[in-house]
Amino acid sequence: MTEGAELTLPLLKVVAVDAGKDPVLYRVVELNGTKVPGYFYGAQLTPTEAPKEQDSFRVEKVLKTKKVRGETFYYCKFLHYPSSYNEWIPKKNLVTGPD
After folding, report:
1. What is the pLDDT of residues 51-61, one digit of tens each?
2. How do residues 41-77 score in pLDDT, each as one tens digit?
3. Which residue, 14, 13, 79, is CA-closest to 51?
4. Are 47 and 99 in contact, with CB atoms under 8 Å apart?
């Protein structure tokens, strides 16, 4: 790993349990609904509480800018989220807050 790089582990949701196997197998998806191929053993998963709904997220980096019908949009990478969650956000929805 590159010095200063931050490890980001994805949050996953269990969508199927195959209790007929020994050990039990789990099928998971990412929180954005993307299917994760294969099955996982319980020892490979770390239980956590579901993230609370939030109305704001910290932007780690603005990757691109575009204008659509005169409105500015930013393609944002969100702090602590994998790149699969990157999204175009209208400028009017971004707020500068304390660091």
Report:
1. 666 667 889 99
2. 989 888 877 666 666 788 999 999 999 999 999 999 9
3. 13
4. no
Is 28:37 a contact under the CB 8 Å cutoff? no
SS3 readout for 8-75:
CCCCEEEEEEECCCCCCEEEEEECCCCECCCCEEHHHCCCCCCCCCCCCCCEEEEEEEEEECCEEEEE
User: What are the backbone angles phi and psi of residue 75, rounded to the nearest 5°?
Assistant: -90, 110
Hey, CA dihedral for 73, 79, 81, 84, is it positive or negative?
positive
- Asked if residue 29 lies in contact with residue 12, where contact means CB atoms within 8 angstroms, the answer is yes
Residue where the block lists tokens 């209790």: 19
